Amino acid sequence: MGVEDLTAHMAALWRARGVGLVLGHGDRVVRCNDEFGVQCGRTAQEAARLTWQELTPPDRHDRDVVMFQQFLTVDSATMLTELALPDGGRRPVLVAAAQVDPGGPRWIAVVLDLSKDEQLRRMAEADAAILSTLLEDAPFGFALLSNDLRFLRINRELAAMNGHTVAEHEGRYVFDVLPQLREGAEPILRHVLETGEPLREVEIVGETDADPGVEHIWLESFFPVRAPGRPAVGIAALARDETELRRLQREIEALSDQRRQALEELQRGLLPTAIPQVEGFDVAARYMSASEEVRLGGDWFDVVRMRDGRLALSIGDAVGHGIAAIGLMSRASGAMRAYVSQQLDPDAMLRNLDVLMGEGESEAVASAMVGRLSPDGLLEYSTAGHPYALLRAADGHVGRLTAAQGPLLGARRHPRYRSRTAVLEPGGALVLYTDGLIERRDESLADGMARLADVVAAQPPGAGADALLQAVLEACLDGREREDDVCVIVVVRPPAPDDVERTDAAPDGGAHTDAAPEGVARTDVAADGLVQAEDVVQGEAVVPTDGAADDDGGGAPTT
């Protein structure tokens, strides 16, 4: 090769990427190509002014000086070292150097960047560390299986689950070690191999030599093991023994069922076991618990026949769920029955009950409605933040009893409650309920109230209380899971026979009704909100809100 050819080859090498070329004199760089500048984190001009010591980290100076001195005494040398970068980093390099003049100070060196190789080495070390952790310390079972379903590697956790040592697994066919699991597990493993798709959280049931005769449940995941662009070379398996967890879950579910049953029995034990019937009225009531234990609330109702022949009605909803709400419901319903026996007026009952709410150590809030129904149909009532009762007239008009709304029990200091009157006409109906009847997650309370009003309006005057109650429950609950407790009281005043005859014979086609009891004007009933059922459907406010009814306001509790 001629001098010109050699010069051309050197020029090409000087321009090459990935190879640093350095010309030196003594311990100083005289000239270098651009690639060496990149390796140093500098320009070629900056690197050419530096000594070898300035290009290497301080902690390597002693070793590199010795190696450099040895190099100057021989024709050539190769060494591993590091270049110090301006940002404080270090780059591993391989340096192959040779003297230009034997025994002289001039030299030439080829420098190769080993940082990518170092990254690969570190990645390999990290992979090895991960695998070591999986095999030695992981709290779950792990195994690598070959394509012919032999154990390549297995950790101690999975080996213990299988009842054999690690050494007893390696190289053996999976179902020679675990013949009991072949029926359930082999199709899964074959599926992963054939499709190349992972399967996660697969439940496998069976027994192993670790616990003979005892059925265990494992949740296992299987992943194909492959290199990029290559078919699967095996399967990675992860396993977790769920047996004890499932047993605990069953125990918790059983305890939860027992707890729910106890709560329901406690709640039902505080409710009336029989509904008293009073001449001239047909009464029906129903309590339905929430579908989930966590939603069991403090709804209550009571129907009491008073000594003077009147019918006392009360219904309420303690805010909250669970034991606390049921305890509050117990206090409230028991106190209400005592107030009824004392023949207190409805507003006085609520005032006393509000005081009772404030006597506990924790805050207690509830809604309630109290009413006293006389044989002649006169209803005295008072309400504390409770959904408005519905009153249906004999002609089918449905209205809301809004005139006596006060604040929630326990929600304010020194609240005011008042009693108002309405008339339950012959052929009419009264419906008291808790908010669980009209609440649905996917609609407004106005929609729920309109549905209830439509059902009440649609029942003929001759329909009994049980029929109306059943129609209300079917329309409003519609077989759904109940998110809250539901209480409903229905009182129907059957039409008098002569009323039916006069209704049929009315020349103007209208329905005749009895006059209001003496001293109660029809305008009182209208003031209580008698409206057409379709007016309710059109979006009238249907549930009491704070301040909506009087100066004291009111509000339906959220339970």
From TrEMBL:
Residues 278-493 form the PPM-type phosphatase domain. Keywords: Coiled coil, Hydrolase. Pfam families: PAS_4 (PF08448), SpoIIE (PF07228). Residues 238-265 form a coiled coil. This is PPM-type phosphatase domain-containing protein. GO terms for molecular function: phosphatase activity. SUPFAM superfamilies: PP2C-like (SSF81606), PYP-like sensor domain (PAS domain) (SSF55785). Residues 497-559 are annotated as: Disordered. The keyword Transmembrane helix does not apply.
